[in-house]
Amino acid sequence: xxxxxxxxxxxxxxxxxxxxxxxxxxxxxxxxxxxxxxxxxxxxxxxxxxxxxxxxxxxxxxxxxxxxxxxxxxxxxxxxxxxxxxxxxxxxxxxxxxxxxxxxxxxxxxxxxxxxxxxxxxxxxxxxxxxxxxxxxxxxxxxxxxxxxxxxxxxxxxxxxxxxxxxxxxxxxxxxxxxxxxxxxxxxxxxxxxxxxxxxxxxxxxxxxxxxxxxxxxxxxxxxxxxxxxx
Amino acid sequence: xxxxxxxxxxxxxxxxxxxxxxxxxxxxxxxxxxxxxxxxxxxxxxxxxxxxxxxxxxxxxxxxxxxxxxxxxxxxxxxxxxxxxxxxxxxxxxxxxxxxxxxxxxxxxxxxxxxxxxxxxxxxxxxxxxxxxxxxxxxxxxxxxxxxxxxxxxxxxxxxxxxxxxxxxxxxxxxxxxxxxxxxxxxxxxxxxxxxxxxxxxxxxxxxxxxxxxxxxxxxxxxxxxxxxxxxxxxxxxxxxxxxxxxxxxxxxxxxxxxxxxxxxxxxxxxxxxxxxxxxxxxxxxxxxxxxxxxxxxxxxxxxxxxxxxxxxxxxxxxxxxxxxxxxxxxxxxxxxxxxxxxxxxxxxxxxxxxxxxxxxxxxxxxxxxxxxxxxxxxxxxxxxxxxxxxxxxxxxxxxxxxxxxxxxxxxxxxxxxxxxxxxxxxxxxxxxxxxxxxxxxxxxxxxxxxxxxxxxxxxxxxxxxxxxxxxxxxxxxxxxxxxxxxxxxxxxxxxxxxxxxxxxxxxxxxxxxxxxxxxxxxxxxxxxxxxxxxxxxxxxxxxxxxxxxxxxxxxx
Lengths: 231, 557
What we know:
The complex is a heterodimer.
Chain A: H1 28-31, H2 36-50, E1 55-56, H3 58-68, H4 75-83, E2 92-93, H5 94-104, H6 109-124, H7 126-139, E3 148-150, H8 151-161, H9 167-179, E4 185-187, H10 188-200, H11 217-229
Antiparallel strand pairs in A: 1-2, 3-4
Helix pairs in contact in A: 2-5, 4-6, 7-10, 8-9
Chain B: H1 3-33, H2 36-57, H3 62-76, H4 79-83, H5 90-95, H6 99-110, H7 116-145, H8 147-174, H9 180-193, H10 203-215, H11 225-239, H12 245-261, H13 268-282, H14 284-313, H15 345-361, E1 375-381, E2 386-392, H16 393-401, E3 407-409, H17 410-417, H18 421-432, E4 439-442, E5 453-456, E6 466-468, H19 477-503, E7 505-507, H20 508-519, H21 527-539, E8 543-545, E9 552-555
Parallel strand pairs in B: 2-6
Antiparallel strand pairs in B: 1-2, 3-5, 4-5, 7-9, 8-9
Helix pairs in contact in B: 1-3, 2-3, 2-6, 7-8, 7-9, 8-9, 10-11, 10-12, 11-13, 12-14, 12-19, 13-14, 19-20, 19-21
C-alpha cells in the first residue's frame, strides 16, 4: 500500500487511520482518502437513483434487486439489510444507506454487486451469523410493539436463513410448524431457540435432546412429533 | 483397652466366627424347607437364645456383636429369598391378612439398617394393586352399565377406597408401629390409584359427588349423625391423596351452591363441619369462598325478613305475588351467566319492587338477576282440576306465555322469551316430552325441533294437587374443568413471578421444581403448562433468558 497515500489530505473528519487493514485491496483503501465530500456525494446520487421521497421504498428495492440481478426474496438482500442495520422492513433510509455503504466501501452498483458476494461470506462466519439470524426476526416485526411473527412468514424465513446450513432440520421443522395448531405465532425467544437447536442437537437421532432443559415448548413438541412420525 | 484384649482377640472373635458359620448352615437349610412365617419364628427364637446366652455367661459387650452376626446370617443374607417366597412371603402375608406374621417381620427387620425398605415396598405395591382393582371394577361397571347405575358404582368405589384406607392404616399403626416408611408407602400407593378417572369423571369430581350425596336431602346415605361425621372425616382424609384439589374445590362449590339455593341441604351443622375439616386440612383459602356461601344464605334469610317488613309497611308497593329473593355475594359463588330472559310482566313488577327495597338498604351495590336459578309456584287451571306446579323461573315464563296465546311456535316462544336455543330446547322438552306434559307439542315426537308448535294441555291431570316439574341441569363438567384450567394458568404465573422476584436469577430445572412445589398444595401442574407460562412471561417482559446460559432465567424488574 503506497505510503504516499497517508500524506494525502483527507477532508473526511471521521476517517480513522485504520486503513492499514490486512484485507485492504489495492485501490479500495485509497477510496477512503478521496475527498470525503466527493464520495459522499456519489453515495447520495446512488441513493437517489432508487429513492422516492427521500427514502428507498419497496419499489425502489425491487429496482435495486433487478440491477443487482438478484431476486428480491434472495437472502442476500436480507444480508444487505443487516449490514445496513436497516430498521424498517422494505425500506432503506438515507442514513442507513449512506452509513452502510460507507462501511462496505461502496459507492456504485458494480462495487455493490461485488460487496454483496463478499458479504455472504462475512455473514456466514459464526459470530456474525448469530447476529444476522436474530436480526432476520426483528427486521420482520413490522408493527410497533409487535413481538411475534406468524407461522407462515417464519417458515419462509427459516428456509431462507437457516435452510442452506441445516437443510434437514429446517425442512422437517417447517413440516411440523404447518401441521401443528398450538402456536399461531413465534416469538424471538423461540426463534433463537431454533437456532440453538440446530447447532447443538445431533440430528436426526436427537440423542442429546433433554426436554427437562429450558428448550422452548414448541421444540419439545417438535421432538415428540419427530419421534412419533419419523422413526 | 488392655483388659478386653484377650477376651476379644482370643475368644470373642472366634466365637463370633463360629456362630456365624453355625447359623449360616442352619439358614441355608431352613430357607429351603421352611415357610416365611416359620423361618421368622425360628429367627426370633435364635435371637432370643443368643441374648439369653450373653446374659448368662458372656460379657455384655458381646451382645450387639452377636446379635448383628446372627441377624446378618439369618435375615440379611436371605432377605430377598425370605420376603419373596411365593406362597408365604411378604406379599402372601399381606394377601392373607396375616397380621401377626407381619408384625414379626417388622420386629425382625426394624433393627437392620435399610431392612424395612423392601418390606415397605411390597406393602406399597400390594395396596396399589388392590386399589387399582377397585378402580378397574368401577370403570368396568361404568362402561357396561352406564347411566345412573354407573354413577352408583362410582359412589360405591369411594366407599370401598375408604374401607381400604381404614384397613391398611390399621396395619401401619399396629403391625408397623407407625413407622414413617410405612406411612409413606401407604400415601404413595393411594396417590397412585386415587387419581384415576372412572367413567369419564375425574377422582376430584367423584369425591365431590360423594360429599354431595351425603350432605343433600334424600341422598343415598341414610346414616346417623355420628356415622355421617365419621364419613366426612374420612373423605377429607382421602382428599390429601388427590392431586387436583382445586378441581375438587370447584366441583364441591358448584354442588354446594345447588344444595344451598334449592334448599336441598340436609343438615346445616354437617355443612359447616365438613368445611371446618377441609379448612384444617387444606388451609383457609381453600374454604373461604364456601364459607362465604353458607353465610350468605343466613344473611339472605335476614334480608328476606326485612323485605317482608318493608312490604307490609308499603302496601301499594306490593307486587301482588309472594316474592322471596336471595342476594348472593358475587365473589363467593360460582359464576353464573345472567340471562336476558324477557320476564313476564307480573315478575317485572316483582323485580322493580325488590330493587326499590334494596336501594333503601344500600346504594353501593349492583344487583344482577340470575333467573336461571329461580323457582316459581304457579297455578295451573286444567279442565279437571287446578294443580299447583313447582317449576323454574324459565319454565314459568314459558307457561305464562300461554295465558295470552293459545298456540305458539318454537320461534315465537324464542323471540318472546329471548333465550338461546340450548336453553329453550331443554325447557320445552321438560314441559312437553317428559313425565308431565303441561304443553302439547305438534308433531308429537320425543325431541324438540325448531319447527314445532305448542299448545296448553288443558286436559292434563295428575292425582297429586301439587307437582314438581324438574328441569334437568346443564352438564357443567366441561365448564368447571375450563374454569379451573384458567385459574391454574394465573396460579402458575403468580408462582413463577414470586419465585423469580425473590431469586432474581435461577436455572430452569430449579425454577420448574420450585414452582411445582409451591403449587402442589392445590394441584399438580403439568410441566408443559409451566413452560408455556414461562414463554408468556418472557413475551410480557417479566423474564428473560440469560444471554450466556440458555438454561438460566433472569427476573426483569
